Amino acid sequence: MGTTTDDTPAPVPAERLQRFIARILQAVDLPPADAASVAELMTRADLIGADGHGVFRLPQYARRIRNKGINVRPNIRLVSEKAAMALVDGDNGMGHLVMRFAAETAMKKAKGAGVAWVGVRASNHAGPASLYASMPLAQDMIGLYLAVGNANHLPPWGGIDMLLSTNPLAVAVPTQDEPPIVLDMATTVAAYGKVKTKAQRGETMPEGWMIDRQGKPLTDPKRADEGFLVPIGGYKGYGLALIIGLLAGTLNGAAMARETVDFNKDEVTKTNTGQAVVAIDLAAFGPVDDFKRRVDDVARQMRGSARLPGVERIWLPGEQSHGKRQHRSKQGIPLPAPLRRQLDALATELKVEPLS
Amino acid sequence: MGTTTDDTPAPVPAERLQRFIARILQAVDLPPADAASVAELMTRADLIGADGHGVFRLPQYARRIRNKGINVRPNIRLVSEKAAMALVDGDNGMGHLVMRFAAETAMKKAKGAGVAWVGVRASNHAGPASLYASMPLAQDMIGLYLAVGNANHLPPWGGIDMLLSTNPLAVAVPTQDEPPIVLDMATTVAAYGKVKTKAQRGETMPEGWMIDRQGKPLTDPKRADEGFLVPIGGYKGYGLALIIGLLAGTLNGAAMARETVDFNKDEVTKTNTGQAVVAIDLAAFGPVDDFKRRVDDVARQMRGSARLPGVERIWLPGEQSHGKRQHRSKQGIPLPAPLRRQLDALATELKVEPLS
Fold it and tell me: What is the pTM of this model?
């Protein structure tokens, strides 16, 4: 496809990006099947517009793997299981592999028991929360995903010690004709990635994203290290982040609070990341099509609401990602020039065929 | 105990309040065992300081029951079940009875399957969310509770049609020596009850609680009918309210969105309230005491954080309710004079022995 200008590379077709990611991961010694599996999930992240969670993470993953911070031959295994639950030890493997296994386990068990909850420890960063919440959709199941984030940017409400991450929550609900309803949210007003983007662009943050150590609004993203993210709804978001951390971390014997390893600053220490996925089989509750039609109806009620002045459209959770996926599947995935250069340098370093 | 002044009645001992509630409920024809069961849960709400969800609701419940809006001889039954789930039809009985049955069913199933999810339809208002999330604590289980609220005060993000309720979420996590961690939150910045309290007191609301139909801050609680509650984190809180509604309402065949009956304005129509409770058996995940000790440790890390200027103490979710329960168990439950008069009038009307 070449480049449109020096600074704006042409979008990359998804299959080409996926093959590139797989080549890089194989070059750092992931087995071919695992490399392909991770590459597929990372590309899916880029397709839905989760730009901070797809190929953007590849250089970081490659460094961590080469530093032996991730185990490329993990023995991902069940530590315990019952009819409706399992606890998975990821053996410090790539988070994508651990979570795919966990989601598949949850779906298999939910098929029998109606509902299943699978917790994970010794995992790693696995990309956007919605990936794993969405896996059960294909089997007419609702999916939930909870995770302990890999860096603490949030103090308890009223505090200034950063003891919590922006612990995300995702829920995906099947529909009939509407795009699936997929909520994917951090428990802070802004995710930390958005702060980094503002800093890169030299922009100011709106009040409400961060506060400084005096509790005053912090709007200069270059000073982000001097402050903290603000949780949604104040003490409510703090409570949510804490509870998600207990459910996805502590319950599974994974890192939480002070144990959390900042994977941006430390590329060697095992993160012992905790995650959880829940699958709810619609068929256990009643006729599947009937449920899906009623969800469609609810979605249309929301979209059809009268609007505030200046609001052009009401969105359902996941609707914009769905649109992006359709667009990018056809038009390719846009990669900013600096990322493209990073990926080229990585390819050169690892002596693999570059992206372009 | 008498009254301390004409306007501030003395606090009422919990057992006395509970017996009074039971008398009223029997007088409107609830069977004695059911009346006692509901009275115990309503009193528990007052003990933990959920003042808008305990005896405060008794006159409203009594009116609805006398209007045949609630079935006093419900056949609360399982519509479907699998190893880890059940769907309960509450037959339009008192929500407390339906939810107690649902929570007990969830615990029983979780004991076998590790985790269980029980959904409910044809239920009614059941008091504070934390009551049912907390029931599994006694069996060393984590509890979750989701509900569709009984009045819509929230439009979709960007909209002005009130299609959603402040759908609450509660999660309770067992501890060793610390008070249990119990998050109980509406998905709006302020619950509607807080707006009503401000109006009663003639106070102004802070900006951020409500907006008017132009999207401007609404701070006069007497104008509450002209505006809407603001969801936590903007579109995130809208997404949460929607998802909770789908999980607790639509999945169970209960009311959601336009189907929601405003139980403050309509005291006759069946509400078809939807709720869900989840129980997670700690023993399935590992040694119970070890988990509880680690939760204690996390709680102490939060409380021990350095604090923002002016902050005296960092609270854990549920810690203040826990303190209130201890205090009110000994000192009694304070009831404002207007509520006390309402309860006296109700007793006279139903010819039962009054509270004092």
Answer: 0.96
